[in-house]
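My main concern about presentation is that the manuscript never shows what a single data entry looks like. An entry of this sort, consisting of the sequence and the corresponding backbone structure tokens, reads as follows:
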Amino acid sequence: MKRNGLTYFLLVGLIGIALPLSGQVGEARRNLSVGINGGLNINKVTFSPTIKQQSMNGINGGLTIRYISEKYFAMLCGLQLELNYSQRGWRELIEDGTDNTYSRTMNYLEVPFLAHIAFGNENGAQGFLNLGPQIAFLLGEKEQRSDAATWEPLGRIHEQYGKWAEKKFDYGIAGGAGFELRTRIGSFILEGRYYFGLSDFFNNTKKDYFGRSAHSTIQAKFTYLFDLVK
């Protein structure tokens, strides 16, 4: 799984770079924009063995740089780079008749490298797609658990309690779609994005308990960009 995940990561990365650079018969553009973004994360973690979960909310936000390189027919092609603070983690669904609760907040510095393809009015309303690889570095994590005493009942996984992430580096694939309104004072952007983690934050060798521990995040983002070069 680890080797296949890295292969997918590299493949999507190459596609993300190739898409905006392909088809140089298009009209050249040199539109460089910078700005800020922020929004909401809806998080879960894919575990093997499976741990029952509820969605866990977190925040995300940071800086965005985008470069539009060409227009090909009605399609604007470019690259987008972000540097974001992102709260991930998981919240467990505990159904054992107790009042136990458990959640883990994991704070990341994440860097998406995205191919950007937009359709519509170049100076007005546009729809767009973003797709590419994403890397991240774990800054810190925190457990939140109830004070109830029964933490290891029969039939429920408990190896994750007090077990801190063993791998700080995270990578995966990010993709999204949204709407952009370009005005004289800048671009206002709404986007829905999904992140699929290809790496695990717990060790996953044959002697380790968890064979899979990867992030899965739905993001709702708002971005404001202004042009530096147009």
Remarks:
- Residues 2-144+175-229 form a domain with the Porin fold (CATH 2.40.160.20).
- The chain has a mean pLDDT of 89.
- The two ends are 44 Å apart (CA to CA).
- The longest strand covers residues 27-48.
